Every structure is written in structure tokens, then in C-alpha cells.
Amino acid sequence: MRQASLRDYEELCALFDELDEIHRQARPDMFQPFPPPARTREQVAHWLAQPESTVLVAQSEEGVVGLAVLLTRVPSGFAGAVPRKVIEVDNLVVRADQRGRKIGRRLLAAAVEWSRQRRATHVEVAVHDFNRDAKRFYESFGFSPSIDRLVLAA
């Protein structure tokens, strides 16, 4: 596990493509194909340059086999909210041919450690309802549900 660099850009895009395709297949009503690249070089550079975000990668002899994008969420402005510093796991994906090898668990452990080093009070992740495997993965790590977001087409 290590922090990504812009030298990883092509491999990161391949992983983002895999992740995006999972979402498009499951929810074509919400996710559509878009022109490549999967993420712009500028977006990745921004994540890497900002102290409140990063991209972690799992590296093997086969190259970059997984990634986690971590973003610091702005605290709630609601006066009744308990002050928190939240790091969100915005994306986490392991290359399809590498799944089942605990790479995701090691990436998530590295994400939690990165968050602790930045004195986060919580690490959060949003999981779409269709992604039951991801939900089980995060729950097996110790994450618990916090909120259910319900959607109605207008």
C-alpha cells in the first residue's frame, strides 16, 4: 500500500473504468457511459496535491491492483451537530482478477490509518443499495449503517 502518484494515472483510470462499469450495469437509470478518460489527470492531481485528500494504491508485481480515494468532508454547519472530522472513502476498487486476496481489506486498513493520522473522528463510505457485496465487505470491517437515503423519481 502506498500513496498514488501521477505516474500511476493510466492504471488508476483502468480501475475507475471497472468501478464505473459496475455502477452502469447495476443502475443504468443513474449511471451512463461518458467519454474517456475515467477521471481527468487534473482531478487525480488535485486529489494528490491537497492535504485533505489522497489516492492510495495497492501495488503488486502486476502493477496497481487496487485504489482508494479519500476525501475530507466539510463539517456540518448545523448548530446541533456534534463537531466531527470525517474522511470519506469516495471510491475503493480492486482489479477483478485480484479480488478475494484481501487486497481490499488492506487498502481499507491503510485508509483508516491515513484518516487517524489526520485526526479524523470518523471514516464513512456511501454504498449503493444494489452493491450488497460492498456493504458486507464494509460491515465485516466494522462499519455500521448510519443513514438510509431514499430516492423518488420526480
Your description of this structure?
The protein has four helices and five strands. It has 154 residues and is an alpha+beta fold. β4, α3 and β5 form a beta-alpha-beta unit.
What can be said about this structure in brief?
With 154 residues, this protein is α+β, with helices and mostly antiparallel strands. The protein has helices at 9-26, 41-49, 103-117, 132-141; strands at 2-3, 53-60, 63-73, 86-94, 122-125.
User: Mean pLDDT, as a whole number?
Assistant: 95
* CA radius of gyration: 16 Å
Return the structural class: alpha+beta
Distance between the termini: 43 Å
Helices and strands, in N-to-C order?
A: EHHEEEHEH
Q: Give helix % range.
A: 25-40%
Give the overall form. Answer: globular
Structure summary, number of beta strands: 5
Unreliable stretches, pLDDT < 50, 5 or more residues? none
Number of helices: 4
Report the β-strand fraction as a percent range: 15-25%
State the major sheet: 5 strands, mixed
Strand order of the largest sheet: 1-2-3-4-5
